[in-house]
Design goal:
heterodimer, A: mainly alpha, 56% helix, flat, B: alpha+beta, Creatine Kinase, Chain A, domain 2, 3 domains, 8 helices, 23% helix, 28% strand, disordered C terminus
Chain lengths: 93, 374
């Protein structure tokens, strides 16, 4: 659906990157778009931008909203669960 | 009055101090220390400070500019009651040797700049802070993050999951349920004496304290450190945490201030009271005034029978009264009654104390921003 949206609206996908992204200096890397870094961020993006998914009645608004609500339960569960890393970082603080 | 190097040297001599522990707070808030043999410190070191390598403190200097000065604040001197041999704690600022200025990444310098900024804004001249840090105490804590395993495993006599466990000598069964720790008496509360020793240790070290209690979660606790000025209270909070960790260890327990050790129960916070004042707080002028109706009503005092309780050790722990506007009983953030030095409330006759407060129409240190907790 994102691909179709790009074709219909003639959205340029960006120039090809023929450099090793792992070796880019931070200043250059800052201009390279990335996918969402967490489920929370992905849900925030989906919530803010999903009109392209509604075209052709492929997805319904109700369906997307219900999905977001369902997946936020996972975000909450994940964020409310202590991690052993927290013990390592914060136990003695 | 500000203490001088000779005051501290006299104290070192009089109290036969062997160690001077120079302490400072790192960028993440952990207290760090460098222990000096007391006899090598003279007026110069105490006044000008000592060089140390700041490059190994995470988040501070690079290795090629590592030298920094630990400059003792001679008004922030405390006896360390845990040291086997007599030790004085000198809380230090970090000074940049190249400029002689306070190091901007030192959190204590941030606190000092915040106090200066409040004055500069003209909003008030003194910030009072009253923090209430919560913590857990456990009997056993293990955790691992490695290539092939990741877990934490905690245990404490109070954890509700131990209700069915077989203990050598029997399971005595009294323990809080999840979120049930606030606050049944002992033996459900297993740590009354430990918390008591924490508070009496802090009082011994000169900290103003007013209480301790179990907190909501099993194995969770809180001590009452009463308010003080910003930087001083920040120092006291470091002492609070140090005392909690150390006393817990002495009882074979381990204490932590980490925010969320247990998924199914409350985490630990640090509820903090702030107020900005014009003029210093003084007990005689700190008659509680409602921030909403701004008056010291007779209704307020008559609705507080505890204020005249004739016991020198039983004192109100919060200013509270009847608000004429909201028509509700209110509790104000300034806990006037707990600001007294310990010696004062142990010796001052209670009736005259309450008389002097209720008879005082003047409140020269005007509270600028008090938030009601109705």
């Amino acid at each position: 659906m994102a691909g179709l949206d790009g074709i219909q609206n003639k959205i340029h996908p960006g120039e090809a990157m023929d450099k090793n992204l792992y070796d880019l200096p931070p200043a250059e890397l800052a201009n390279v778009p990335t996918v969402c870094a967490s489920l929370r961020e992905a849900l925030e993006q989906l919530s803010a931008d999903h009109d392209f998914l509604l075209k052709g009645d492929v997805f319904s608004k109700d369906q997307i909203e219900a999905y977001i609500e369902l997946k936020y339960e996972e975000v909450a569960r994940w964020e409310m669960t202590p991690s052993p890393v927290e013990y390592d970082m914060y136990y003695s603080g | 009055m500000a203490a001088t190097a000779s005051d501290v040297l006299k104290r070192i001599k009089d109290e036969e101090i062997e160690w001077i522990d120079l302490r400072f707070t790192d960028p993440k808030g952990k207290w760090q220390h460098l222990t000096m043999v007391a006899s090598i410190l003279g007026e110069d070191e105490l006044t000008d400070g000592l060089m140390f390598d700041g490059s190994s403190i995470a988040g501070w200097k690079a290795i090629n500019e590592s030298d920094m000065i630990l400059k003792p604040d001679l008004d922030a001197v405390y006896t360390d009651p845990f040291s086997a041999t007599p030790m004085l704690i000198l809380i230090c600022d970090i000074v940049e040797p190249s400029t002689g200025e306070l190091y901007a990444r030192d959190p204590r310098s941030t606190a000092k700049r915040a106090e200066a900024y409040v004055k500069a804004t003209g909003i008030g001249d003194t910030v009072y802070v009253g923090p209430e840090a919560e913590f857990f105490m456990f009997d056993d804590v293990r955790f691992e993050n490695s290539y092939s395993s990741s877990y934490y495993k905690i245990d404490d006599i109070e954890l509700p999951g131990n209700s069915g466990r077989e203990y050598e000598g029997g399971n005595l069964a009294h323990r809080p349920r999840a979120k049930g720790g606030y606050f049944p008496v002992a033996p459900v509360d297993s740590a009354v004496d430990i918390r008591g020793e924490m508070v009496s240790t802090m009082i011994e070290m000169g900290l103003p304290c007013d209480k301790h209690h179990h907190e909501v979660a099993a194995a969770q606790h809180e001590l009452g450190l009463t308010f003080g000025t910003l930087t001083t209270t920040a120092d006291r909070m470091q002492i609070y945490k140090y005392v909690v960790h150390q006393v817990a260890h002495a009882y074979g327990k381990t204490a932590t201030f980490m925010p969320k050790p247990i998924k199914e129960d409350n985490g630990s916070g640090m509820h903090t009271h702030f107020s900005i004042w014009q003029g210093r707080f003084s007990r005689a002028t700190a008659m509680p005034a409602c921030p909403t109706c701004a008056s010291i009503s007779s209704a307020a005092s008559s609705s507080m029978p505890r204020r005249s309780t004739p016991s020198p050790t039983r004192r109100p722990t919060a200013t509270s009264g009847w608000c004429r506007v909201t028509k509700r009983r209110c509790c104000w953030l300034i806990r006037a009654a707990t600001a007294r030095p310990r010696a004062a409330f142990l010796t001052a006759p209670a009736p005259s104390r309450s008389a002097s407060r209720s008879a005082s129409p003047m409140r020269s240190p005007t509270p600028i921003s008090l938030m009601p907790r109705c």
